[in-house]
Amino acid sequence: MAGEPQADCLFCKIVTGSIPATVVRETETIVAFRDINPQAPTHVLVIPKVHYPDAASLAAAEPAVIADILREAGNIAAEEKIDDHGYRVVFNTGAGAGQTVFHAHLHVLGGRGLQWPPG
Q1: Which residue among 26, 77, 82, 89 has its CA within the 20 to 30 Å range from the CA of 113?
Q2: In terms of C-beta density within 10 A (0-12 exposed, 13-18 middle, 19 or more buried), how is residue 93 classed?
């Protein structure tokens, strides 16, 4: 059921602590941790503690949680000292867009030049 932890979900396991991660921030609604395959000097994933497969389904069901994710992305950028130089926030939705874990998550990327359009 949407919103409920999924036994086969990597990110649900990180939320519960059964899989370790390098957590940089945690609140009542989110967990943020360093990506294990960073694409920039700062690459942090911000995930909701509730399980939804993508950002659109999360936003439709729990808009306050998606607002928390975006607010915490800004806090992380400030803590990582990338907010003055610029950073990117990305939600990938679907396999064709590069989503590999089907638990809504936001990438916070910075610390180097980020070209547009992304490749």
Answers
A1: 26
A2: middle
